[in-house]
Amino acid sequence: MDQIGAMKAFVRVVQTGSFSAAAREQSSTQATISKKVAALESLLGAKLLTRSSRELSLTEVGAVYFENCVAIIAELDEAQAQVRSQQASPKGILRVAAPVVFGCQFIAPILGEFLIRYPEIKVDLMLSDKHVDLVAEGVDLAIRAKQLEDSSLVARHLFDNPLITVASPEYLKRFTQPKEPQELRAHNCIVYSMLKSVNIWHFEQAKGGGDKISVPVGGNCRCDNGEAILQLALDGVGIAQLPTWMVDKHINQGKLQRMMPNYLSHPLPFNAIYPQSRYVPLKVRCFIDYLKQCLAEEPCYY
């Protein structure tokens, strides 16, 4: 029995949520993957997975074993990567998770050139505004618009992008334009529901020297996607706080108007996040370096 192969199959079954998905990924069959997991259970003398017609779930013992398998496989991958980096170009599947808008506007346009530059890398780009567990879901690298909160992860800073408070001319025809942050309390504000402090917007005076201002805001609509919030603002639903790169074009076209130019919101940090390890896989390092290089060529992102 190939125990390491069986462990890898087990891990991918858990991470993908099904035997068939793991089989497709490994160019195998569902029956073969099922036999590997069954052989592993037989070797251990313990049931790892509870199977039903609709879903799989880890047993208590299986959950502990899964975490150990992930750690062991990571160590093996690290050892192999160290050897390969000394004599070969980066290769393998690179799983990248990113917010939807960032992925569409920043990553997708530069991905073609990256794949040409590194022909032995295959990119699995996963776009979602939901929080991704890198280890559990087998993700090599995630782009997050927030400060690092997990000490088991490493963050490489990409850029800081200030948020701009905007509204459409149509909205401002119906309501008095706010001049001070506290006036936002009386307005319909469209909030991004994925932030930790959803209904709190933070400001400081543009010229500096003033106190930081935190304003509780609210309205009749909240959303977990920046592109949708942008569209709602363009449609005159309310006031939104969005990154510069999302709204600059619409401001220049007169479709949106910046509110309170004398006040700046706190910059939104964009970081590349990856699991902490003694050795960072070459494919991960190459992608981060390439992404930073491309962003540096676009000064509007800083």
Automatic annotation (TrEMBL):
Keywords of the record: DNA-binding, Lyase, Transcription, Transcription regulation
Known EC number: 4.2.1.1
PROSITE patterns from the UniProt entry: HTH_LYSR
Domain HTH lysR-type per the UniProt entry, residue ranges: 1-59
GO terms for MF: carbonate dehydratase activity; DNA binding; DNA-binding transcription factor activity
Keyword Coiled coil listed: no
Keyword Cell membrane: no
Enzyme class: lyase
Family classification: Belongs to the LysR transcriptional regulatory family.
PANTHER family, per database record: HTH-TYPE TRANSCRIPTIONAL REGULATOR, TRANSCRIPTIONAL REGULATOR
Protein name: Transcriptional regulator, LysR family
Species in which this protein is naturally found: Shewanella pealeana (strain ATCC 700345 / ANG-SQ1)
